[in-house]
Fold this protein.
Amino acid sequence: MVTLVTLPVAKTHLRVEHSHDDADITLKIDQAGAIVTNYIKRSAGDDDIEWTTDTVPLDIQAATLIMLSRLYDDRDAGREDGDIALGYLPKSVTAILHRWRTPALA
């Protein structure tokens, strides 16, 4: 799996200047990337996507950073706000990823 966001980009986004949380942030980068690619039902390396860490589209990176923020800020998953409590992604993430999503077959 291609890393959708690098650690330095993630730390800048999260406004983290120390290295104490690097392992946790790296794990959450992978988790956020998995959530994003699962939502669009594709992953880097699929036939129609040839992303490398340097060529990930900016909107995919933005969605990944938003998910990363949610995972990092709410580490105990105790916050229940609206649709997220029901298992949906944040509306800002789905709005960004909508055009990338492969429709489900009925």
Remarks:
- The longest helix spans residues 22-40.
- The mean pLDDT is 85.
- The chain has one domain: 7-100.
